[in-house]
Write a structure and sequence with these properties.
This protein has one domain (6-180): Collagenase (Catalytic Domain). The chain contains 5 helices and 8 strands; from the N terminus they run E-E-H-E-H-E-E-E-E-H-H-H-E. The chain has helices spanning 19-32, 47-58, 116-126, 130-145, 153-170; strands spanning 6-10, 15-17, 39-45, 66-70, 72-74, 100-103, 108-115, 178-180. The chain is globular and about 45 Å long.
Amino acid sequence: MEPPSVQISSSLRSWKIDERRISGLVTHMAQRLGVGHLEVHIGFVGPTAMRRINRQFRAKDKSTDVLSFPQMEWRAPITIQKTSRAQKFSKAKHSTGKSLVAFEHENILGDMIICLDAAQKNSREDGSDVAREVCFLLAHGLLHLCGHDHQKPAEKALMFRQQDTLMADLEGSWISCVRRKVT
């Protein structure tokens, strides 16, 4: 199976983004979810751009940490594929696509936009590293692309369990995926 194409963009000059590491994190998570054959686009932005995007697409005039724009519609949220311990962070099964309802673009799962300043603020508030927070936001955004939501308690519980499993799988492999440049 071909690894997914992970397209990463950023115009932020104050952040160092390890595109190879980010791509590896997203590839692993996508494979665990059985959507490893689909393309994912990730944009890293500042708070002004995030506020503009959130206002334009969600009618919310404020910045946020992550936005997801799925290109596929699912009957039910895609859940993590069962794998053995030996397969963790290396191999995954290919999705059968049985729960796929419709798609806009045949090979594109969707787009994620992450505000690194918001990620840094979140990490300070919960006492974690900004790289871990970015990995958390990647997992959260990817789950949204796979049909998850957190509006209702049962949906939220399922999504957050899946998110916790993805984070546990990665066991610190997010180290140095992003960092603020020293000026």
